[in-house]
Write a structure and sequence with these properties.
The protein is of the alpha+beta class. The chain has 5 helices and 14 strands. It folds into 2 domains: about 140 residues, Roll (Chitinase A, domain 3), CATH 3.10.50.40; about 120 residues, Roll (Chitinase A, domain 3), CATH 3.10.50.
């Protein structure tokens, strides 16, 4: 997926491709999807149902199908048989897919991403891998993946809540062998690298308010390294209590890549965000727990406390250090 401007979530694992995990700037994004990043529960504004073609079974139709529980723990319905060899976990697969939450919200689909998607099998969530291993080119399956084989207890806010089972329509279009996959992946990696470099040069923060906190306002020497690995610069010390892990907090925030590209901001949306402290990436969580109500701070989060080696596909590149401006407005 092109790494263009795209708003995302600061939570434990990125949304696909939610499926495979990767600057959504607060400006324009390749899918024209407005994805406020911190809300931990589904928002109908985030649903992509309108992108799904009519020929794809509707959620109601999918719900009426009889799914058979596989030994892997994934429940499957074979919608169409395929032909040829099944993929291995080393293969590169081409597919169409639609992913639903239990309430029928489409949280991701290949159709929202411009069509067929190529993915390395090893990068898929476990339940998706288990499904693909049973398919042939041309095969279409409807599957229900339990949360334990998807995003588990952390979920992938703001789209996928914790402990959520997912329903997928999956069409396997093509398989490339490991040798072919390596060659293809190498080419795509070079293309992606160039796209990322171009986007970092052309990062569009035009939608980000000029009266909101700006990236260059706080110089790097003002940050103090913490034992955990995050760096903090307190702009204003709060006068209220500090939150606990089980609290829900109300705050304003902006998230930047190190090049100053805004990937998400509550200021852009014009309203603060509320979410549980325990529902965000580790570095952001540590930053909040050290604050008091009415406090304002900047925090620099290293990749290992953010999105790590996987990044957030189409949004946050792998191994990205993130900078956040955080204003703690209240605790619920």
């Amino acid at each position: 997926m092109p790494i263009n401007n795209m708003k995302i979530f600061i939570v434990l694992f990125a949304l696909v491709s939610i499926i495979i995990s990767g600057c959504q700037a607060s400006g324009k994004n390749p899918e024209n999807i407005d994805i406020p990043i911190i809300k931990p529960t589904p928002d109908s504004n985030l649903c992509l149902n309108e992108d799904v073609p009519n020929e794809i079974p509707s959620f109601d139709e999918v719900q009426s199908l009889e799914l058979i529980l596989d030994n892997s723990g994934v429940s499957m319905h074979e919608h169409k048989e395929g032909k040829g060899n099944k993929p291995t976990v080393q293969d590169l697969v081409t597919m169409n897919y639609v992913g639903w939450l239990p309430d029928g919200c489409v949280f991701d689909s290949s159709f929202s991403r411009g069509g067929e998607q190529e993915m390395l099998m090893v990068n898929l969530i476990p339940g998706w891998i288990d499904t693909m291993l049973t398919m042939n080119p041309g095969s279409i399956k409807i599957v229900k993946i339990p949360s334990s084989l998807a995003y588990g207890q952390t979920g992938s806010p703001p789209i996928i809540p914790a402990n959520t089972d997912l329903i997928f329509y999956i069409e396997l279009v093509n398989i490339l062998t490991p040798q072919e996959a390596i060659a293809t992946a190498t080419v795509e990696a070079e293309i992606t690298k160039k796209e990322m470099e171009n986007n970092m040069q052309d990062c569009d923060n035009s939608d980000y308010p000029k009266d909101a906190p700006q990236f260059e306002e706080i110089s790097s020497e003002k940050f103090i390294m913490q034992d955990s690995g995050i760096k903090i610069a307190d702009i204003k010390l709060g006068d209220g209590r500090s939150p606990y892990e089980f609290d829900e907090v109300d705050l304003h925030y902006t998230g930047w890549l190190m090049n100053g590209c805004v990937f998400d901001s509550s200021f852009t949306r014009g309203e603060s965000s509320q979410f549980p402290v325990d529902g965000v990436i580790q570095g952001f969580k540590e930053a909040i727990l050290g604050m008091n109500v009415n406090g304002i701070r900047r925090v620099e989060i290293p990749p290992e406390l953010g999105y790590g080696e996987r990044g957030a596909t189409g949004v946050i590149p792998p191994n990205s250090t993130l900078v956040f401006h955080i204003e703690l407005l209240g605790i619920k």
